[in-house]
Design a protein that fits this description.
Helices cover 0% and strands 50% of the residues. With 124 residues, the chain is an all-beta fold.
Length: 124
Amino acid sequence: QLQASGGGLVQAGGSLRLSCAASGRSFSNYMMTWFRQAPGKEREFVAAIRWSGGGTFYADSVKGRVSISRENAKKTVYLQMNNLKPEDTAVYYCAVQSGVIASSVSRPGVYDYWGQGTQVTVSS
């Protein structure tokens, strides 16, 4: 089970930190990933982190503004978003899946487990 939180309304240039708390299993071989979906648009990859080893992946659209991290003891993944832009407005979802290879990390279809989403709204 995944529980996403931390969304809200922020002005352009502001920051938010999203959290995704996982429960119910060991995630040693899992990829933990954030996607987002704006109204009328397809779900879009944002960032991912390997639970073991901590390797990270970022969408080009957020590189330099977003940082993904994990806290093993709390089974929680964080998405720190800085210098937010109105185009970052979306519902943000966390997802988790075992055995995801690097070339597939950005594909929503490879993930079986999803959190409920948290709304991020950036005003101009």
